[in-house]
Specification:
It is a single chain. Helix content is 48%, strand content 13%. It is an alpha+beta fold and 536 residues long. It has one domain. A hairpin with a 5-residue loop joins strand 12 and strand 13. Helix 8 packs antiparallel against helix 9. The chain is globular, with a radius of gyration of 22 Å. It starts with a helix and ends in a 5-residue tail after the last strand.
Length: 536
């Protein structure tokens, strides 16, 4: 009885989530020759805000732009200055989109003449540092997510805290956050912003995250080192992001009913008990927003459509998370990317299962999957992140994508997801192709590629002579569950070699897939969206 009670909560949630305001791309195309982007203006309820709320948003957008400045340094180092030497406007735009001279959509290969390959650790570490030197550096500050590793006058490694290294930019951002506080009539928002300022000044974000998870304001704001994906050397250093958000309070409250059954879903994972023994934090929340502005790595190359705050695994266990859904970005990507891809590559008899509602739900379930699984190895020797090193982030994305269909199956089996279950499977496959087009240099793209190749080997997905895909639904169901079980066990064991083998053995683009992707590019179906900058 308890299971059914918990799952019954979902019915109105998904119906409501599928009936909200839609965002429309402008239809303009940015053509870089080897790929195109759909240029859009995000649709937001900005005009519905009161005058003081508009002033708060304006100041927060100004603060958020400094996440761009900081991430340029984290990602490109001294090469960030190259932008001022580039004459050709389209190359300048490409540089700004990628936050440097390496193309995220092409495995981070350089597109500016004379620029070397991108360092695996970006610019969080000295370019001449070797791994043995890092491991021999005895100061534990090196493991902090919030320190830059640099050299002292004696050429020895040292740590520089973010709040010192980026002080000039942070001081400017804090100035505008203070201006927003002065205009705001929202006490809860002001209290959160005060805690955020403290975090930015000290690199201590525990209280910031705690207040943000419980924040329930019309306007919400995220700024700081909130994601780890750019450091592909050690998967340690967090990069800066910013989000200025307008919340749909009514829908968010209804979606928060998911919190009631997270623990049930964790216990239902298809692995032995020791691999699902961790319980999701008690304060895990879901919130739906319209994004006004994305800053830093949140818009580098591929603009985010959702995220989970915070990334810290122990905080997630002890306290919980806030699952953020960016409705207007989701809708823009469906209309501009998912729908055209499905019409091109999925056989007509199956293309009818590709729906906007399924894409929205997939995005939601992906982030919910972030709250499920295992974060510490079962041998008690440390975190999964530490054990899997540079493969950790990709492994989490693989797990989250697979979790989408695991969750869909669980909920659909008790009639708690509306519509055909095939909607989720077939829309899922189109979403894989969307991500694969970003290239294996992008962690999301690599995760999608690993899953697609695994499904192809299992004959769950087949390539047709017409450069289309056909899906074997029943085989796909069993294959998804098998791979989810496999990856959860590897994570729980902290088995670096097994994860490396899984990812690297599926990090290839077959001739059939290459032809399919080339066909999409040749017909100018955008690889993603570019959001026109907002100015206040």
């Amino acid at each position: 009885m308890k299971k059914n009670y918990l799952l019954i909560l979902l019915v109105p949630v998904l119906i409501l989530f599928s009936c909200q305001r839609q965002s429309s791309p402008s239809g303009k195309i940015i053509d870089f020759g080897d790929y195109t982007l759909s240029k859009i203006n995000l649709q937001t309820p900005y005009n519905e805000l009161s005058e003081w709320q508009k002033q708060v948003v304006s100041n927060l957008v100004k603060a958020a732009t400094y996440a761009d400045s900081i991430f340029f340094i984290e990602n490109a180092g001294d090469y960030a200055g190259l932008l001022h030497t580039i004459k050709e406007e389209k190359t300048r735009l490409r540089f700004r989109i990628n936050f440097g001279p390496w193309d995220i959509y092409h495995s981070n290969l350089p597109f500016v003449e004379g620029v070397p390959s991108k360092p695996k650790g970006a610019y969080f570490y000295p370019q001449d540092m070797i791994l043995s030197e890092f491991y021999n550096f005895t100061n534990t500050c090196k493991f902090s997510h919030y320190t830059m590793i640099r050299r002292d006058k004696q050429d020895r490694l040292m740590c520089v805290p973010y709040h010192i290294y980026f002080k000039t930019y942070l001081d400017s951002a804090i100035y505008y956050i203070r201006q927003a506080q002065q205009k705001s009539q929202d006490t809860a928002l002001n209290n959160y912003l005060e805690t955020l300022i403290t975090g930015l000044e000290t690199d201590g974000y525990y209280d910031t995250y705690k207040k943000f998870i419980n924040l329930d304001s019309r306007i919400e704001f995220i700024f700081g080192p909130t994601e780890i994906s750019t450091d592909k050397l050690l998967n340690l250093k967090a990069e800066h992001q910013a989000f200025v958000l307008i919340k749909d309070d009514s829908l968010s409250k209804k979606l928060n009913q998911f919190d009631a059954w997270l623990k049930y879903l964790q216990k239902a994972l298809p692995v032995p008990e020791q691999y699902r023994s961790e319980e999701p934090g008690s304060s895990s929340l879901i919130a739906v927003y319209d994004a006004v502005f994305l800053g830093g790595s949140a818009k580098a190359g591929v603009p985010l459509i959702s995220t989970t705050i915070p990334f810290n695994a122990q905080f997630q266990i002890n306290v919980g998370t806030k699952n953020i859904q960016l409705r207007n970005v989701i809708d823009a990507k469906y209309q501009g990317i998912i729908r055209p891809i499905s019409e091109k590559i999925i056989v007509p008899s199956q293309a009818k299962y590709i729906t906007r509602d399924a894409f929205r739900t997939i995005t939601l379930l992906f982030e919910i999957g972030n709250s499920l699984g295992i974060r510490n190895t079962i041998d008690g020797k440390g975190s999964v992140r530490q054990a899997l090193k540079e493969f950790y982030t990709v492994s989490v994305y693989i797990k989250n994508y697979l979790m989408v269909l695991f969750l869909a199956e669980k909920l659909h089996s008790v009639d708690e997801l509306t519509g055909p279950i095939k909607d989720y499977y077939y829309t899922f496959v189109v979403n894989l192709i969307r991500g694969i087009r970003w290239g294996s240099g992008n962690d999301y793209g690599l995760a999608n590629l690993v899953i697609l190749n695994y499904l192809h080997k299992k004959e769950a997905i087949s390539f047709m002579p017409t450069d289309q895909l056909i899906i074997n639904y029943e085989t796909m169901k069993t294959s998804i569950q098998e791979l989810l079980r496999h990856i959860l066990i590897i994570q729980g064991n902290g088995d670096y070699s097994a994860m490396a083998k899984l990812i690297l053995s599926n990090k290839y683009i077959s001739a059939d897939l290459q032809e399919l992707v080339r066909d999409l590019n040749d017909t100018k179906i955008p690889i993603d969206i570019y959001i026109n900058p907002v100015k206040f």
